[in-house]
Design a protein that fits this description.
Order of helices and strands: EEEHEEHEHHHHHEHEHEEHHHEE
CATH class of the largest domain: Alpha Beta
Mean pLDDT: 92
Shape: globular
Low-confidence stretches: none
Bound molecules: adenosine-5'-triphosphate, magnesium ion
CATH architecture of the largest domain: 3-Layer(aba) Sandwich
Distance between the termini: 35 Å
Helix content: 25-40%
Number of domains: 2
Radius of gyration: 20 Å
C-alpha cells in the first residue's frame, strides 16, 4: 500500500476577540491510495478545519502551530502558493461543506467549471465545455446545457452540492476531500453521490478523506475511520473493528445513537450534554463531562494518549469500553 496523505500532530487554532479556538490538537491520520478514510464527529469538532488545512485554504485568523501534512512527498504546509494552486484541482480537490456559498455568485455554473478545466489542462474551450457538460450529467444533473448558463442563486441547495461535486471531480483528482458532501440531499440522491465516489476510488485508484457526522455514511463508505472529539482524534480503526469493537465511550455513544433495522426494539440513546468549549479546553479528557465510563484517574490525569489495543486500532481513553461490557 502507498501512503497518499499523512498528517502528523496537526495543531490549528483560530484567533478571535474572545480567545483562541483550539480547533485541532495533535491530529494524525494516514490515508492509503485507493482507500476511503472517514473522519466522523459532531458539529464543531474540527472536521472542516482539517479539510481546509490540507487544501491550504485556512482563513487569515488561523494559526498552524505544529504538525505536518504530507501529500506523497510534498510537505503541504511548506509548499509555495503556486505549488498549492497547481495541486488543487489537478491532484487534490475539495467538495466544500457549504456548496452554495463556495460557488462564485456572479459567474455562471458553466464558466466556473470551464475555468477549472482550462486552468489545469491544455484543451480548447469547446472541449472544456463538452467535458463540463459530461461531468454535470455524471453527477446526476439532467439538462446540463441549461444548468451551465445558470447562476448559483437559481439552483437549489442539492443542485449546488452536485455542481460542487462536478467541479471537484472533473479533473479526476488523486485525492478528494469531501466535507459532508451529501448532507442536505435526499436519500436517493445521497446514495447516487456516494456511489459516484466509490466509482472514483475503484476506477481511478483515487483516495478520499470523507468528512461526515453520519455513521450510516461511514458504514457504507469507509475503509478506515477516525473519530474526532473536541479537536482530537479519540479512536481510529478499520471500519469493521470500529463498528464491532468500538472502545472509546464517545464512539460507543455515537453508535448507540444510531437507529438499527436489525434490532428494532433497541433503545436509541442520545448523547447527553454538549460539546466542549474549544476556547477553554480542559487539561484532562474533554469528553469527561459526558462520559459514562469516567473514573477517578480521568479527572486526575492529563488527557490520555492514543494506545494501540489491537493491530491498527487506537483508542485514547483510560477506561475504554470492553466489547462485552
Ligand atoms: N474562521 C474561524 N474563526 C474562529 N473560529 C472558527 C473559525 N472556523 C471555525 N472555527 C471554530 O473552530 C471549531 C471547529 O470548527 P469546524 O468548522 O472545523 O467544525 P466542524 O467539525 O466542521 O463542524 P460542523 O460539523 O458544524 O461543520 C469550532 O469551534 C468553530 O466555531
Ligand atoms: Mg464542518
Amino acid at each position: 500500500m502507498t501512503e497518499i496523505l499523512k498528517i502528523e500532530d496537526l495543531t490549528v487554532s483560530f484567533g478571535t476577540n474572545v480567545g483562541r479556538v483550539k480547533a485541532l490538537n495533535n491530529v494524525s491520520l494516514t490515508l492509503e491510495e485507493g482507500e476511503v478514510y472517514c473522519m466522523v464527529g459532531e458539529s464543531g469538532a474540527g472536521k472542516s478545519t482539517l479539510a481546509l488545512s490540507v487544501m491550504g485554504l485556512l482563513p487569515q485568523n488561523a494559526e498552524v502551530s505544529d504538525g505536518r501534512i504530507m501529500y506523497r512527498d510534498i510537505d503541504l504546509l511548506r509548499a509555495s502558493a503556486e505549488q498549492m494552486r497547481d495541486l488543487r484541482g489537478r491532484e487534490i480537490s475539495l467538495v466544500f461543506q457549504d456548496a452554495q456559498s463556495a460557488l462564485n455568485p456572479i459567474e455562471s455554473i458553466g464558466s466556473q467549471l470551464e475555468e477549472v478545466i482550462l486552468e489545469h489542462s491544455d484543451i480548447s474551450l469547446r472541449n472544456a465545455n463538452r467535458m463540463a457538460q459530461e461531468m454535470l450529467r455524471e453527477v446526476g444533473l439532467a439538462d446540463p446545457q441549461r444548468i451551465m448558463s445558470q447562476y448559483p442563486f437559481a439552483l437549489s441547495g442539492g443542485m449546488c452540492q452536485r455542481v460542487m461535486m462536478a467541479i471537484a471531480l472533473v479533473l479526476r483528482p488523486k485525492l478528494l476531500i469531501a466535507d459532508e458532501p451529501t448532507s442536505g440531499l435526499d436519500v436517493t440522491l445521497q446514495a447516487e453521490i456516494l456511489q459516484r465516489l466509490k466509482d472514483l476510488v475503484k476506477e481511478q485508484n483515487a483516495s478520499i478523506l470523507l468528512i461526515t457526522h453520519d455513521m450510516g455514511v461511514v458504514a457504507s463508505m469507509a475503509n478506515k475511520v477516525g473519530v474526532i472529539y473536541g479537536g482530537s482524534v479519540v479512536e481510529t480503526a478499520d471500519v469493521i473493528p470500529l463498528f464491532r469493537r468500538a472502545q472509546h465511550p464517545y464512539t460507543w455513544s455515537l453508535l448507540k445513537a444510531l437507529p438499527r433495522l436489525d434490532e428494532p426494539g433497541r433503545r436509541i440513546e442520545p448523547l447527553p450534554g454538549s460539546p466542549p468549549d474549544m476556547i477553554n479546553l480542559p487539561e484532562e479528557c474533554s469528553f469527561l463531562p459526558r462520559c459514562f465510563k469516567v473514573q477517578a484517574q480521568c479527572r486526575a490525569q492529563p488527557k490520555p494518549e492514543a494506545r494501540e489495543i489491537e493491530e491498527g486500532h487506537f483508542v485514547a481513553c483510560y477506561n475504554p469500553v470492553v466489547p462485552e461490557d
